[in-house]
Write a structure and sequence with these properties.
two-stranded antiparallel sheet, 135 residues
């Protein structure tokens, strides 16, 4: 008869890690998954922040994306026309909220504070836009 295989073969290993026998993908830790998710949310927030022309805040966000991605520089976006600013502030507020949730779950205080500050700033910008539109 056949003797059972006790270890995974080279075919079942991906990048030095054991692959999941059902999916073929390497396992990642919860922390790695949260880092990747947080970097994605921050990269999206960075793109919107660039479109809003907030260079100082964009630099702070870019630094955190670079840290989370192990030194890889994030892509940057050009500034958007003025008529798109209210929609961009709403989008940035939502993205900062998502980043805040993930940062809190991984106990990244620096990013959580940054995300909360961005939420406040975009909420204030929206409030002033709504007041200006009402006049």
């Amino acid at each position: 008869m056949y003797e059972p295989i006790r270890t995974k073969s080279v075919v079942h290993r991906v990048g030095g890690r054991h692959a999941d026998s059902h999916t073929g993908y390497p396992h990642s830790s919860r922390a790695e998954a949260l880092d990747s998710q947080l970097a994605g949310h921050l990269a999206a927030l960075l793109a919107v922040t660039d479109e809003l022309g907030l260079d100082g805040e964009a630099a702070r966000i870019a630094a955190q994306v670079t840290r989370l991605r192990g030194g890889a520089e994030p892509a940057r976006a050009p500034k958007a026309p003025a008529e798109e600013l209210p929609a961009l502030h709403r989008k940035a507020h939502d993205l900062a909220g998502r980043a805040l949730v993930v940062a809190a779950s991984r106990a990244d205080t620096t990013v959580a504070i940054l995300a909360a500050q961005r939420m406040d700033a975009h909420a204030a910008a929206l409030a002033s836009t709504d007041l200006a539109g009402a006049l």
